[in-house]
Write a structure and sequence with these properties.
CATH superfamily: 2-enoyl-CoA Hydratase, Chain A, domain 1
Order of helices and strands: HEEHEHEHEEHHEHEH
Largest sheet: 6 strands, parallel
Oligomer: single chain
Number of strands: 8
Number of helices: 8
Distance between the termini: 109 Å
Strand content: 15-25%
């Protein structure tokens, strides 16, 4: 029997059984900012939409993360939006819609200070409720509205967790209370004495000290400018935008 050389045998497989398929990259889906980041996207570049609507709902979350079941508004999501609004050339104004029970004091004051210092017109609208630290935020805009059935609760600040019973703790509380009071009084039409009277009123709230104002009562006290809804708030915002543009054109001339 003749022997065959190695080279005489054909290769077992000339080509791989399963050729590699070229990988096709799937188009990247746009980021759902509401679901993934918990914040509203910036408005599109449309000439008809010249303002941004910012919603503050549930509880304002600050330095402590609240339980997942709580409806929250995270202040670290709002601050970048306010910075972007201030720098945007297409956004001419800001509409702030509130339905909040309050929350972190420093976070609420930070939001209120940024809205107040915004170089563009702003209007707030209280729907449902603008309680506790939501009061300074509602007062921080150039003009404020409240629905007839909406309420605002004015009460002293409180601390949660462990409290050390020393004089320094009460001094700290008084300083924080002074910050809130000065801001509300300085950005609304209510007097400081009257605001403190409403804050420390007894007999109205079952488990707390303070006052609940409903719609027209908040306007009568000077905290909110006018009773109204979405239509009135949008009309006022457009009026302020046109006024600022007119003043800007006069300065350029």
């Amino acid at each position: 029997m003749s022997s065959q050389n190695k080279g005489d045998f054909p290769p077992l497989f000339k080509e791989p059984l399963h050729a590699e398929q070229p990988q096709v990259e799937e188009p990247q889906k746009p980021l759902d900012t509401i679901t993934q980041l918990g914040q509203m996207p910036m408005p599109p570049q449309e000439p008809d939409l010249n303002f941004h609507c910012m919603t503050i709902v549930g509880q304002i979350e600050g330095h402590i993360i609240l339980p997942p079941k709580n409806k929250t508004t995270k202040y670290e999501h709002l601050i970048p939006q306010l910075v972007a609004i201030a720098q945007s050339k297409t956004i001419k104004g800001l509409l702030v819609v509130l339905n909040t029970v309050g929350g972190d004091i420093e976070a609420g004051l930070a939001i209120a200070e940024m809205i107040k210092s915004l170089p563009k017109p702003s209007v707030s609208l209280v729907l449902g409720g603008g309680h506790s630290i939501g009061v300074p935020i509602a007062c921080s805009t150039n003009y404020s509205y409240i629905a007839e059935t909406a309420t605002m609760t004015i009460h002293p600040i409180r601390l949660t967790g462990m409290v050390i019973s020393v004089p320094q703790t009460y001094e700290y509380l008084e300083k924080m209370q002074e910050r809130v009071t000065k801001f509300v009084v300085g950005n609304s039409g209510i007097a400081e004495e009257r605001f403190r009277e409403l804050m420390f009123r007894t007999g109205e709230l079952v488990r707390d000290v303070g006052t609940v104002l409903i719609g027209k009562e908040a306007v009568a006290e000077g905290i909110i400018d006018q009773v109204g809804g979405v239509g009135q708030a949008l009309n006022k915002l457009q009026e302020l935008i046109q006024q600022q543009e007119a003043e800007g054109s006069e300065v350029l001339q």
